[in-house]
Design goal:
Elements (H helix, E strand, L loop, with lengths): L7 H7 L3 E5 L3 H8 L3 E5 L9 H10 L2
Parallel strand pairs: 1-2
Length: 62
């Protein structure tokens, strides 16, 4: 069986893994310890996660 004949999920799992980690920085060290390339994005929800405040900020274009 060639790589082309394998299901897509098997092809994905057999390829090199690269990760974009969003928010939870604790995952970065574990992934890097496994030899996985990781880019960390320090992200937090707008207005601290308060939906009403986020809606107000969205109206202001912030």
């Amino acid at each position: 069986m060639t790589d082309q004949d394998r299901p897509q999920y098997q092809q994905l799992l057999a390829s090199k893994v690269e990760v974009v980690n969003v928010g939870l920085e604790g995952f970065v060290k574990d992934l890097r310890d496994c030899g996985i390339d990781v880019v960390h994005v320090d992200w937090k929800p707008s207005a601290g996660g308060d939906p009403q405040m986020a809606a107000l900020l969205a109206k202001l274009g912030v």
